[in-house]
Amino acid sequence: MRIRRIDIENFRGIKSASWRLPADRRFFVLIGPGDSTKTTVLSAIERALHDRAGLNVLDTDFHGARVDEPIRIRVAIDDLPDELIAMDAFGGFLAGIDDKGELSHDPTDDSQRCVVVEFLVEGDLEPVWQSYRPPVNGMGEEEPHPIRARHRAQMTAYRIDDRVDAHLRWSRTSSLGKLTSNREDTRATLTKASRAARDAAAEAVTDELKALAKDVQKQVQSIGTTDFSDLKPGLDVSLTNTQGNLALFEGDVPLTNFGLGTRRLTGAATQQLANEGTTALLVDEVEYGLEPHRLVHLLRHLRKEGTFSQVFVTTHSPTALLHLEPDELVMVRSAGGVTELKPLDHPASLRPLLKSCPEAFLARCVVINEGKTEYGVVLEHLDDWDHGTNPQLVPSAALGVVAIEGNGGTGSAGQAKQFRGVGYDVVLFIDSDDRAANDMVREVEALGGTVIQWTGGHSIETAVCAQLDEAGLNAFIQAGLEVADDEAAAKQSFADNLGANGAPHTAKGADPLDVATWGAAGVDLAKARTVVGMTAKMKGWFKRVDKGRRLGRFILDTAALQTGDVKTKIDDLKAAIYARPESPAAEEPADDTTDACDIQGSALDGEPVTPPIAPSAGRQPADPREGPGDA
Amino acid sequence: MPEHLSDELKADAAGFVSALPASVVMPAGAGKTHLLAATAKHIVTDGRTVLVLTHTNAGVYAISARLKRFGVTKGVHVSTITSFAFRLARAYPVLGNMFVPKVMVPEDSQKYIQAAAKVTAAAHIKAILAASYTHVLVDEYQDCNEYHHSLVLKIKDAIPNIGILGDPLQAIFGFTDPLPAWADVLTDFPEHGAIEVKPRRWVGHNEVLGEWLLKVRDGLEPDHELHLNSPNYPTGVTFTNVSGAPNGVTTAALRALSLPTAETILIIAAQAHIARDIAGALKGNYTVMEEIAGKFMADWLAKLVTADLARYASWLFSFTKKCHCGHGILDPSPLGKRYADGRIGSDLLTTSNKRAGAEPAIEALDRVVTNPTLAELASADSGTSQSFAVEPYHDYRVTFWAKSTENRSLVRILADGAVVGERTIPANSEWTEYTVRLNAGTRTALTLYVGFNGEGTYLFDDFSVQRMTDAPLYPNLVNNGEFDAKATTNWVVGEALELSKDDKFTGSASTKVDGSDSGTTLAQTVRAASDTAYTMSFWVRSPGGTISYVVRGANGTPLTGPHTVGADGGWVLITETFSSGEHTELTVEFADVGQGVSYLDSVEVRRTVDVPSEPTNPADPTDLVDRGVAL
């Protein structure tokens, strides 16, 4: 079973969202800044595939707590087992889904058969699970069919969260309980064990359960939890109710007393055993409670085929990202209540960046700098703006800004396009002296990215030098020498290189390292600016992050640079970096649904705008079999 | 206990299953349904699933009933070919290239079959069918036209294990649609000849006729002759040629009634109107079986289609009177006239209580008057009722479980339109068991009516009607025989009597007859049937006094007694059985003939149970109705 598409309306922070999942992937890492509704997406999946009859829904589960618009979550699942496509299950209302995630009323030869589970809650807060199929032109409304809990239970999504403790006990609904019922006769075994446990707490657990605990131990170890040596069932006296007194113990310590990470991993392990590769696993903040090495081990385990049919994790951890592949990432962005979930267009090209700077993927705003020089300059400026004499109210880190070192002109522009394409705010700080790069820069701008580029064919070095007088140029050269690895040797090479680029020779009585002497030798200030700037750029005087920082400091400290194009562009950069994301409240219009469409239909994908969820077919009356009478 | 299957039948079933795809040809009465059910049982006993298709709902019912007898409850789906096709075609309109309405249109059956064949040709649907059923059995295959046959062949692509049963000689459809050549059918379903054909329907019952019927079958085959004038009829078979005689059939039918046998007589007519004519000529001696085409319903719904909105309530009123039992209190005038005039009728409820019990119906009709929509009409007709047969004068207990949301609901037991018992299900109530206990009185049928009071969800379960008494309990003709009302209520008393609350036998009081006021009499006259046995009984305690008692006829003739009873310290039951003779009024009379005090309680006069009821009139035609059936 495989989730192929998720459509969400009016659920918590999501006014609308439509996510089409590629058929060939089973491991999805949802990343995005805070409040980008990643967790809400997991909750939506969990609710739509909830495996029991009832579910408590609150007013606050509605988008903006407005209960007049129903919560509607549709999950399309293909690759269904025979049992579920039979006529007495979903056989009478299967839909089709094509490679692009487009749904059709009937499954055709060009599509996969799938069931679309619609979770619908109206103002009465009574959840309904029913089928959905897109309408066929001219046919009128499709009549929804109830999707029963016993069928949902076969495609359920299990979520690892703080309530994981329940799964470390033997109860009717816990994964340990299910596991037991799969292998043994639950009631007999559990009753026997519980009764025995009551009689003589430690000694009386049945052999069946002990054996099962050993299985769990093995599985837990393979998933990278603590190295348990004596995992066994025991009586947990901390609970007063009759169910679930029997819990997993390590030696004499109940597992529920272990750290959160261990408990989460153990929960995942038992769940995996209980469901044997058929269930979607949802892990919110996969890194939570885990040391880096256990996190890495867990990720490796979850990515293995045959564990869960699909795994959805969210993460804020650079460590996690460092061990993931770019094509596993799904960028989640929320604007105006519309959540977009997008993979990278050319993930392979961002792999080096993911390995070198995973933080960028966790940012809201990525400042992509053409090279090491620009990167250093920007880092130095960020330090000054965040922590200098006149600091910004909200530091850049708090705004989710991460500066990264780009990959040259076209490379950086390409990265900027991709980041922008999946929803990041992008600031591209790039020279204007590369024609190929300039063309891509226009595309970045067209996508809504901010590009900071020197006016007229400049690099940062030439742009700076263009505003310096002789003394300033000398200071610039001095700054370059300061950060050179070997200052003495550098003096010689700087002099040689300047000379080669047009600085007057010593023979003419000039000192190549002292621009003040150049005029007498026939090199005027305009030419001197070009010579110094070009030489600095070509010879990479500042082409290392720490050297770039020195250049940044130079820009900050040089009066002549507090004006002109340098000042303009540095101010632009600052403005772009500290631009506050719009507050969510301002983004959500009180009563306007067209807004959602406008944003969704922006130039981002160029596709025609259709609301992700078609107008409602009426809701199905509650299935009496799922009513409280069934309890 | 499920019916035991003979080893022969089991072997036949197993042989048939292993020969699939195959066909079995069986004449009428040879046990075709038996074999089909046994085959289905064989399949599901192996843990597999079978789809059983036939042509008529009557066939579905017959097969389902046989399966139930054989203890088959799971793994079998029995359906008409048309409704199975309808279901497939409706589920997949794109594949079938047909928009199928929610409700089946009988005239379109053929289109459904053709659409279903297209649907079934799709790979996804084949997968669905294969996942749903391992085997298919098609009954009455002789009635499959070419469209049915090609649908079955499409199903065979998905489910190769198809068995067909039929008898080409019994084809009753196919007069208009072309039938596939039986020889062609046999190429897809080779004849399974291993089952011996025996006249099983006649086993232990007119076996000679059964043998003969099998034999004459040969004469019906193409190119054979059947000679009805043959002298070689077995015992019990006669041939009378009535052609040309105007009343030939009726004469023969009436003569048959006089035969000294308890057999059922069946008259088969070619057309419904001929059957009705014959039945009419037989003056009710035969029962006419209902037409199967549903003409009544079609006619009434056709009226509705053309009806003006203002006529909806009137239509519903007439329709209700026509087709539901227990609406006798809905009077044609003035109530019916109200609806005919487009006015509401509920105000009549306030002027008279003769329509007590009809309030929900009248309120629902009124809602249709004020809001004449089809939706309202459907909801008004949503009160649901069911009649059940009862034996007169027996006590019955009706129990059911119910819960409701929002509005209250009403469950009523009606007899001849009058409410004899009711329970109200309060709004927002949890599952509760309700009991209504009542005596059937003179009635032979009661109607259980569940009325819904507006929107809301009502759940009912486990309706059951239990007879609580082994023998009928005829009503007590005496009023206030318990003396729980004033002693003088309903009684004619010579002297003042006093109620004795301390010395009572049942209820709250007895009456105290004080011997000091000698000459005290106590009498009550009740209506009774003539020539009927009655039992008079009462409890008496006479610590010192003496009481005489007598039952008199209309003219004072003693029918029993007078007798005396007295001078006994404890409560004594006195019973007297007597026949009413020619009298239709009975007077029960007590007189104080002693000096002390006596107490009387529980005076009853009831029809006697164990005396045979009235002698039956041999000429009574009702006695014969059950013997004749006209088709």
Brief characterization of the structure:
The complex is a heterodimer of chains A (631) and B (631). Chain A is an alpha/beta fold and 631 residues long.
Q: What does this entry look like structurally?
A:
- The complex is a heterodimer of chains A (631) and B (631).
- Chain A is α/β, with parallel strands linked by helices and 631 residues long.
- Chain A has a domain at 164-273.
- In chain A, 36% of the residues lie in helices and 17% in strands.
- In chain A, the strands form three sheets. In chain A, strands 1, 2, 3, 4, 5, 6, 7, 8, 9, 13, 14, 15 and 16 form a 13-stranded mixed β-sheet that branches. A four-stranded parallel β-sheet of chain A has the order 18-17-19-20, sandwiched between helices.
- In chain A, helix 13 packs parallel to helix 14 (435-446).
- The longest helix of chain A has 17 residues, at 207-223.
- Chain A starts with a strand and ends in a 31-residue tail after the last helix.
- Residues 237-243, 583-612 and 614-631 of chain A have low confidence and may be disordered.
- With 631 residues, chain B is α/β, with parallel strands linked by helices.
- Chain B has four domains: 7-198, P-loop containing nucleotide triphosphate hydrolases (Rossmann fold), CATH 3.40.50.300; 308-380, no CATH class; 395-467, Galactose-binding domain-like (Jelly Rolls, Sandwich); 492-607, Jelly Rolls, CATH 2.60.120.260.
- Chain B is built from 19 helices and 23 strands.
- In chain B, strands 15, 16, 17, 18, 19, 20, 21 and 22 form an eight-stranded antiparallel β-sheet that branches. A five-stranded parallel β-sheet of chain B has the order 1-5-4-2-3. Chain B has a four-stranded antiparallel β-sheet with strand order 8-13-10-11, with no helix packed on it.
- Chain B is elongated and about 105 Å long.
- The A-B interface holds A 82-83, 85-88, 91-94, 96, 104-109, 113, 136, 138-140, 143, 621-622, 624, 627, 629 and B 77, 87, 91-95, 99, 102, 122-125, 127-133, 403, 431, 457, 459, 461.
